[in-house]
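Trying the structure run again after the queue cleared.
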Amino acid sequence: MFTIILVEPKYGGNIGSIARVMKNFDFQNLYLVNPCDFDDESYKRAMHAIDVLENAEIFESFEEAVEDIDFLIATSSIETTSEKSYLRNPIYLPEFSKKIYEIEGNIGLVFGREDYGLYNEEIKKCDLLLKIPTSNIYPSMNLSHAVAVVLYSLYIESFIPRKPRVIDKVEKEHLYQFFRELLDIIEYPEHKKDKTYIMFKRILSRAMLSKWEYHTLMGVLNNTLHKLKN
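Done. Tokens:
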């Protein structure tokens, strides 16, 4: 199940347009974080998707909105090409659309503010950063257009039969916690911990682990921690 999350959208027309395109491609769940008020333009642009608009859930904070999400994908037009900068090292839409159906659970697609996008702290909370390939001359898309492109790509891929892989939010957090403990035990340099943790998170999120892969990796980490503690 996919949930579209708009963080502090500023224009009612964009919200209405997104509701419409969601209905075009069979997406129903819309979360809004501190949105502007719905206005006449919101309803005009929603057209026959007013139900998506009116059923949208509104949250006061980003943390509250993503509480029930198992796998979070941030979106941004800003990327870094350095292999050492993991925060804005993205997966591109064509590859993402093929892989994401291997994941089960509630998948959140997070879109940022029209003028600023997502803050780094919000991106840090996400498992992956997604980018739509666009021209270097003008890479930033209108919010509603970006949502439309992403949802169209996902919709097309949904027709391809797949056997889903399953790793849920709790299992994922256990794996991340084991890695944090490992960094502490080996006295990994404090100033490198945050960046290395993000790198680990991005690697595992791109891999989209199966249950078998998860339990194998957890076994290795668990045994490693046990031996180091003893």
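DSSP finds ten helices and seven strands in the chain. Worth checking whether this holds up in the mutant runs.
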